[in-house]
Write a structure and sequence with these properties.
- The complex is a heterohexamer, with three copies of chain A and three copies of chain B.
- Chain A is of the alpha+beta class.
- Chain A has one domain (about 5-95): Alpha-Beta Plaits, CATH 3.30.70.120.
- Chain A has two helices and four strands; from the N terminus they run βαββαβ.
- Chain A has helices at about 20-25, 65-80; strands at about 5-15, 35-40, 55-65, 85-95.
- In chain A, α1 (about 20-25) crosses α2 (about 65-80).
- Chain A is globular, with a radius of gyration of 14 Å.
- The mean pLDDT of chain A is about 85.
- By secondary structure, chain B is an all-alpha fold.
- Helices cover about 85% and strands about 0% of the residues of chain B.
- In chain B, α14 (about 295-305) runs antiparallel to α16 (about 325-355).
- Chain B is globular and about 60 Å long.
- The model of chain B is unreliable at about 175-195 and about 360-370 (pLDDT under 50).
- The chains are: A alpha+beta, B mainly alpha.
- Chains A and F meet through β2, α2 and β4 of A and β2 and β4 of F.
- Bound molecules: adenosine monophosphate (3 copies) and sodium ion (3 copies).
- One adenosine monophosphate sits at the interface of chains F and E.
């Protein structure tokens, strides 16, 4: 079984930024992602207690380094200032590389 | 004679406030507040706190629709337009106060102004259950007013914010036109701001609160009392109990927010009490002048007095992301909501009783003439 | 005379459909549909939409059990066997239609055939509340028939699918025996298919729907009316309201699926309307012939007409993973369910009224004699 | 005569047990048990199983508060102190039995001792609904006793565990003082143990169970019957039905745990049956001697008999993390709870009826005189 | 503190494939895993809206490269064609390597 | 866009250990973390079924290797023996390294 190197971008942000992020993804032609609600703490305070729309969401995207860097740059540019948000990259290996282009 | 009657009214209000505190709805709110303050692990499951507002909106919508079917709604137009007009005027007024006296920045000022110009469906529910307790009816079409009023002041605030942002950006553009990247970003922001308004309008109108409310009004109207029978235990019998449970949750959230009140500042706390009082009492008078019933005038006043703390965060975070949510959530939920349901509601009820001349001795005009 | 009575019947049906649309249950479904179509953010918390089916099943089970205790169930055997027989015949019939006329592949054909051969507990609940509205009773043992019927057509479909797969594999094996890896995979698939049947049988019978349904029937039977009293507000009083809330959710899901209808194709849409009509009307006649009451015949017809959209996806995805879920979920939930509860239910009620000779002027036999 | 009356009593108890099994509450528990045993996929959504205990506590709190308002609670002090005293004595007694006869280690012994010394709010709810079924009232202040009793035996057990740990550590420290890293860890543990007690006390008292219970008692007391009216459908009408639904969930969890019973061992299973019986019957006698009513004595006995299976895991895992949760959860929920609600409850009811001399033929003293 | 290199296999799939995956795990003698429900989008369309059993589940297994490759191969072989599913490997370091064999 | 290498520490444990872990984090001056409930299986048996407080929680912390190793060491020392718990490190790259110190 051959494995291919791709990247995983993980974005954790307040739920209200979700829509903007998904729009950025689709602008870059990325259709595959996984998301789930999380709680958390960061520079913008404890989240995930109380109103539903104060929760955080984590969005994970497996794709090529190039595409994900573009995505991250756009997120950083437009969303970092207004929303509670962090993101990080990691290396992952997949079987069907064609699924993640 | 004068003095005595004034005294009586005062006692009446105090008595009503006290009686109001001793209702399950208010007491469960206080229980939630206490639980949060002593850092209890008490919390409602998310699913329940998401479901209850939907249920409450459906219940008040059905109730409104049934009432409208029974009593008609020809007379609805003028109160509705008046409510919209007042709401807009109030929003502008809040903005001036916040910006000039409160020295808040544009974004926070507009966000707060619209939070207090908007309406609170939970507050409305509590009002209905308060009236039910007093065995006083209210005009069913006020539920429709609630639904229409929801997006009004948000739209105004967002429109004005966009205007302000556009102006700012234009002047900035003139002064600095060198940094390309930044310029691009600014242009992006203008674009974003421009799309925001229609987006927000769309989202407000398709927002779950309005959909459920309008939908249930129509359903209530369509099915009538006979059709309602089969679901009346769920949507009528359980109503007050469900509010009590929901207010337990609201109390918990308000309690968790109380620490933020320090950050909010004295000015905003005073604002959060005086403005609802002012708006609410005006609302009662205006509604009475328009011919609404005793209970209807109270509900109309409550619409004016209430601040939005469920819709506001969702709408404003998208529409004015530069504003600090801690300001408008904390003041609306932590100060205004408890004040409204515990103190202002009985006050408005007393005022409405007086101007409606319930005890037969004072009527609107000689009340104005003598006491004001 | 003839023409006039036919006209009357027609008007009756239209009137009943209209009256049926104006019930809370149907209107909340439509509200959900509209909300989904205009892309509102309205949604039920998962916990609520998982809990409500359990509640509904428990409520109809208890209700059935109580009825069976009061009226006996000696007469249950023949209707139950008839229902099973009809269900199997219908499933085979669906398969032929789908495979030959619809040109679907084996997997999709069997999946769809069994979806429509199976029964829908939600549809059954709506039927009960419809009859309640009409003040018409139905045989309690039909709930037991519902429970027994659940797995029947799935088991048939899966058995036949396995048979078909085994044949296919055998012929494939003969033709190509070189590629070892692939061969191994094929053998794996045969094994999987073989375990599937017993697994599916097991899962169907221990599936939550059947467990709750059978369990509640037994509980209802055991406790009787006196024992039921203490829980009757929850399991009887709240019943219709809970259905209304659940149908709001069903409406939302159906609305989200409506876009898929294009993918489903015209053939399947027509199938999704004609087949339930055919099966349902047959069901009403057969049940009447077997001596069931007016309401019982409607419920029997509904059992035949209804398609499964909660159990089906769960069972079929495991059992026939090669079939496209969008086909059977969309057609069952997006087309057949609304058609059944809005239009077919009043039609079957009218038919049952006629064949039960309610107005005293036409009875089953002269009806057959004169009108058919 | 004697023999006959003994026989009658015995038949009475058997009859009561049988009648008790045929109540919805018990039957839904058994349904959950069966569902779990046959590995059905039936499960309650988490949100529902988190919400129901809050609801049940609020309901019994309100009920208790209302009763206390109506009948006073001057007479509450002595039963409450007695309950606390008994609870402490029982906890120490359990520890001796478990440590000496059962050969459990210190941690498990204390954890189990306090689990059985503590009280179970769910068991209490079932008891109330059992009495409601029998149309027998009980003293409202027992709800307050339930609230006060909650933390008592945990605190004792944790205090004694800390004492034991400290002793152990001291002796260990003396023997080995070479391994620095380990020593550091031991010192850390001592610190941890020391903070535990105050932490546990704090957590117990601000724990959601006590907050909701005490809060609702106060609310019930404050609002009175008139104020309760508007929420009575939710907190009274739905009560038994909600218990039935919650017991379905409890049955599922108990069923999933039944496999662990083998690990628990015969000794603990016998302990889990004999100890509640012993404690419960003593409770009934003591309560009767203190002048409590027939129903009150049953509820008092139930407080003594019940083991904690919701609070215990949460408190003990923090406070005595060295103890094996499978022991105390499995025995309390898997053995004692079903035994208590199915068998012991009717037994205690019979005993209480006898000692309260209900049928007029035997009174407490000649009963003691002749039969014991 | 010494850290040991092992692998983390992350499988995201529709909830209906969960049982099959857990069976494959236990067939390979793996008892440790973590799982949670997620939403997502991929080639098989948006998931996680509507019926519960249309949600996705994410299963994470920390173990040796060898074992996890066998697992991935079996998943690829039997489940890739019939279910919405993706999987990827990443490198992680653990303290108690003996726990993940 | 420049990326900086930092570490991600993932802790999966029974929910009752959460408080202790958050205390350890704050003792080491770490305020940022993300957490969510998960189910799982491990040496301490299947979790996440039945009572809420038998669920697992996953806590993820992005920070410097140094700090995270200290945290992990303290968790290992005080909590490994009494609680169902696993933890692992992985390499991630972030944009704003100053956020994760
Ligand atoms: N160091 C961190 N490690 C893991 N998650 C973090 C960290 N910092 C922030 N987060 C997550 O990102 C969200 C937004 O962070 P912030 O913008 O700093 O408030 C927080 O609510 C956390 O869920
Ligand atoms: N590129 C991706 N990145 C992250 N998650 C993905 C990606 N593609 C698919 N997924 C997840 O895997 C599930 C199944 O994918 P698929 O088989 O492509 O429908 C989706 O529903 C997503 O949760
Ligand atoms: N090999 C593994 N891979 C992924 N998660 C695991 C693994 N082993 C244990 N876990 C998770 O860590 C929790 C505690 O593990 P344990 O202490 O082994 O019971 C389990 O309930 C799982 O959620
Ligand atoms: Na307002
Ligand atoms: Na059918
Ligand atoms: Na006890």
């Amino acid at each position: 079984m051959k494995l291919f190197d791709v990247k995983l971008l993980t974005v954790t942000c307040e739920i209200l930024a979700q829509k903007a992020i998904l729009e950025i993804l689709s602008k870059h032609g990325i259709t595959g992602y996984t998301s789930y609600e999380v709680e958390g703490n960061g520079s913008k305070g404890i989240r995930g207690h109380g109103f539903k729309n104060e929760k955080n969401i984590k969005i994970e995207i497996v794709s090529t380094e190039e595409k994900l860097k573009d995505v991250a740059e756009e997120i950083a540019r437009y969303l970092f200032s207004d929303f509670a948000i962090i993101l990080y990259f990691s290396d992952v290996q997949v079987i069907r590389s064609e699924k993640f282009i | 004679m004068e003095v005595k009657s004034n005294l009586l009214i005062q006692m009446d209000i105090l008595g009503l406030i006290q009686a109001n505190i001793l209702t399950p709805v208010v007491l469960f709110f206080l229980l939630g507040l206490v639980a949060a303050r002593i850092k209890s692990d008490l919390k409602m499951p998310d699913a329940i706190s998401e479901f209850l507002p939907i249920y409450l909106l459906a219940a008040i919508g059905l109730h409104g629709g049934l009432e409208m079917r029974n009593t008609g709604f020809d007379s609805m137009l003028i109160p509705m337009l008046t409510a919209i007009g007042l709401s807009l005027v109030f929003t502008l007024n809040h903005y001036q106060i916040l910006r000039r006296l409160g020295k808040f920045n544009i974004f926070d000022s507009y966000a707060l102004a619209s939070t207090y110009g908007a309406v609170g469906a939970v507050t409305f529910s509590v009002g209905l259950s308060f009236l039910k307790n007093q065995d006083v009816a209210s005009e069913g079409y006020l539920t429709a007013v609630l639904a229409v009023l929801e997006p009004v002041s948000f739209i105004l605030a967002i429109f004005l914010t966009n205007l302000a942002v556009s102006k700012q950006i234009k002047s900035k553009k003139k002064s600095l036109s060198s940094d390309l990247g930044n310029n691009e970003k600014i242009l992006g922001m203008v674009d974003q701001s421009k799309t925001n308004l229609s987006g927000v309008l769309r989202e407000s109108i398709t927002g779950k609160a309005i959909i459920v409310l309008l939908g249930s009004i129509i359903i209530g109207y369509a099915i009538g009392d006979k059709g309602f029978e089969s679901i009346s235990i769920v949507f009528d019998g359980l109503f007050t109990g469900a509010i009590a449970i929901f207010l337990l949750e609201m109390g918990i959230i308000a309690g968790q927010r109380l620490d933020d009140i320090k950050k909010v500042g004295v000015f905003l706390v005073i604002f959060s009490i005086l403005i609802p009082t002012f708006n609410g009492i005006i609302g009662v008078f205006v509604a009475t002048a328009l011919g609404l019933s005793l209970g209807g005038a109270v509900m109309f006043g409550l619409l004016m007095a209430s601040a939005s703390f469920i819709a506001a965060p969702a709408v404003l975070r998208h529409a004015i992301p530069q504003a600090k949510p801690s300001l408008y959530i904390t003041s609306a939920l932590g100060v205004t909501f408890p004040y409204n349901i515990i103190i202002l509601l009985p006050i408005m009820f007393s005022v409405s009783s007086i101007v409606h001349n319930v005890d037969g001795s004072i009527n609107l005009f000689n009340y104005f003439g003598i006491d004001l």
